[in-house]
Structure formats: C-alpha cells, structure tokens
Write a structure and sequence with these properties.
Length: 176
C-alpha cells in the first residue's frame, strides 16, 4: 500500500460522487490523490512522516477543477480598484480617455485594472489595441485591461515590465 505524504481532514468533503459533503479525509502522495473517504481508512495510509492537516468544517473538494472560469476577473471587478465604466467605449481612444479620467479621479492609484474593451463594438475592421496608445497616456503606472470576453488583455509597457513579460515580447518582434 502506498503511504501518504499528506492527509487532509474535514467534516465537509465533497467528492461529487456523493450528493452531499461528508466527514472524512483526502489522502495525497506526491501530486496525486490516492484516497478519498472515511478517516479510519485514511489512517491506514499514514506513516510516521505523513503530515496531517485538519480543516474543521471547511469545504474540501478533492480533484475538483473548472475547465473554464473567470473568477479572478470577478474578484478584481467587484472587490478591487477597477474601472467599471468602459464597456460602452466605441474606440481605442475612448478607452484610453476613460483610463486617463479614472486616474484623474483616483490620483493615488498605483495600478489600473479594468474589464473594459469589447472590440466588436469598435466597428468592423477596427484594429486590435496596442500598448502604444496606453503608453502615450499612462507611461508610468501599470495598466491591465481585460477584454469583455476575458480572453485577451491589453497592457501598457509598465504592466508588461511589472509582469516580466518583456523578455517574451522581445522574442516576438511582430507583436505591437
């Protein structure tokens, strides 16, 4: 029998096999879950080197993953400093102007986040935005703008540098 590196205990384990959370344990070896079930059986996987963590009544969902989610976007939009009024912009310049207005209204802002641009509302054949327009208006504060779909981002050079993406971009001189 494989021995556990880690055993997680909770009164609320949800494995999606049973209809409701249950009290039990999740047994982990390396980066694999090797058992999910009752505490007594989980203990049979333990060795003197096994780390045990009890999460009380906190929910544990072993093996759960979401194949497509945008949770970080909702978190930034609802709870962080985020531009919330740019979805209706009809051009790259309107978005840039909105970023500038936001910074004028929030002079202590050290970083701009926004979920703002909807390229199809900019008109047929509108080019994708580049960092040049953001750099011209906001050269020193990182600007991160996520498309309305959440599948593309528009960053200025300060944001690119902050994320250490500049080396990747230098490998692709065709990227604006």
């Amino acid at each position: 029998m494989e021995k556990a590196d880690l055993i997680l205990y909770s009164t609320a384990i949800f494995d999606s096999v049973q209809d409701r959370p249950f009290p039990g344990a999740v047994v982990i070896r390396g980066n694999r879950i090797i058992f999910v079930g009752d505490r007594q059986t989980a203990e049979t996987y333990a060795s003197p080197d096994t780390t045990r963590k009890d999460f009380g009544n906190q929910l544990i969902m072993p093996g759960f993953f979401d194949g497509h989610g945008h949770y970080q976007t909702a978190a930034v939009r609802e709870f962080g400093d985020c531009i919330k009024h740019l979805e209706g912009c009809r051009s790259e310049q309107e978005v840039v102007d909105g970023v500038v207005r936001y910074l004028e209204e929030n002079p202590n802002c050290q970083r701009v986040h926004g979920r703002c641009f909807f390229l199809t509302s900019w008109g047929r054949g509108a080019p994708e935005p580049t960092r040049a327009s953001l750099d011209a208006a906001v050269p020193d504060i990182p600007v991160y703008l996520l498309s309305s779909s959440g599948h593309s981002a528009w960053l200025n050079s300060a944001a690119i540098n902050e994320c250490h993406l500049d080396s990747i971009i230098h490998q692709h001189p065709e990227w604006p």
